[in-house]
Amino acid sequence: MKTSRIMKRASRYVIFYAALFGLWTLLAELKVWPPYLFPTPWGVAEALYAGFKDHTYWIAIRVSMERVLIGYSISVVLGMILGLGVASNKFLEETVGGLLVSLQSLPSICWWPLALLWFGLNQNAILFVVIMGSLLSVTLAMEDGRKQMPKIFGMAGRNLGAKGFKLFWYVLLPASLPFIVSGLKQGWAFAWRSLITAEMLYLSLGLGQVLMMGRDLNDMSAVVAVMILIIAIGYIIDGVVFKGMERHLQNKWGLAPAT
Amino acid sequence: MNAGAQNVATQLPNPAQPFRPVRSCGSCAKVAAVEAGPSAPVVLPAIAKVGLREICLKYRTHSGDRLLALDHINLEVKPGEFLCVVGPSGCGKSTLLHLIAGLQPPTSGQILVDGKPVEGPGTDRIMIFQEHGLFPWLTVGQNVEFGMKMKGVSRAEREEKTRYYLRLVHLAKFERSYIHQLSGGMRQRVAIARALATEPDVLLMDEPFGALDAQTRDLLHDELERIWSETGCTIIFVTHNVREAVRLGDRVVLLTFRPGRVKSEFPVDLPRPRHLEDPAVARAARQILDQLRDEINRSLEAEYAEGVKPHIETGVGA
After folding, report:
1. Measured between CB atoms, does B146 come within 8 Å of chain A?
2. pTM score, two decimals?
3. CATH of domain B23-37+46-124+201-308
């Protein structure tokens, strides 16, 4: 019963992607558009193979991952402190909290010109954009998580002698994790997008630049290949890291898995 | 315990006044003030473990009104005493425990533990909450050692004590389980073990068995009584269940409905171990309940007036 349902689901996936792939192949073979505008699947596969073989993609992935990890980590730490402050102080909530919500409508790449002026044409400017991209979601998630977290945990923690940093680290943070994990996930997605955007604007290795290189060489196969890489990395981090974290928390807390 | 004169059973022929209502509502503030003198520093007798002096607490409700939750509460708890506090829901009895735990300051008045004023939380006073007080992200063992870890107790000592206290509540086998894997009764036993592991002088219990089924609660009453006599700690136990209060307490304090005042106190001089079904317990409970009923009616009227669906807590055993 159960296996047949999984089979059904898997077959739906296979059919969908086969159809998509078929359509792509068909359009490419019919030569509706010239190949330099509309790459064939084979061309993209070749570009992927070549890119990995001459290490361009490996280096680009490493550089991009490094940047996003540094930027995202800073966002998480800062965002948690900010969010906690906003959640526990009425004045901050009304002032900083409101500002954060309004800032969320600003695409992080708008910080790029300022970042260039402040940090120069280097890695730090990219990191700044990545941080601005994800900081807000993490902050708002932490604020929300802190408010949703049952108050009794904080009381029990203080009662058992936890205060200051210990209270935050051993009680408030773990107690609010189930409520902020979706915000952390969203923050990651924003960090990743901001990074690629910033990399496209600045020659600096990284996936974004490799993608722009494809454009400059008029090599649409390479462009699509890098797009696929960007999607794949984002999807893998989401599916492995964050799904794993959610499942782990659900098991510990005994929460019903989200459906 | 069985000192005779105040034994409830011996007083039964006179049901109108079976207890000695030590204080009655309203007058306590004046009495204490006269005793202490207008400017004299408050000096408690050396025997008081916990002393509440003129405790008042005002809330600001969502609508902005100032609500008087506790009104000039005066209470003294002797070392090793098992004190039960009963009252209708909304009388501020849980809040009273928060104040003693130092989780919240009173608006006015003084809380003394061993004669020293309370200034914030301390591990000499540990609370046990009705539910959800345990940390779901930690295992049973990690929950029990939490207080010791905060104190900086060494790992080896923590492990040893964790095992000791888990054995004390008969949960040694569940050290590595998570909280959600345990039944309600087991969770409250973990909470007791966690509280005891910090070696507090005073246990503050906030309707700890309110959400449990009758059988489990009976078992936990026995266990709590045993642990209390083994450790000799002072217990302040809040409940809305009068029979539970009589079954456990050396003394029962009845609070009035909003604002919470001490309406009366009842020493319970029944021999231990007691049982919830003991006729003497039931009789003693009934007499407290007569006084409690007025307060419950007031609380129900207030709830109806506020348009809130009342949840009736008659206080009689389930």
Report:
1. yes
2. 0.72
3. 3.40.50.300
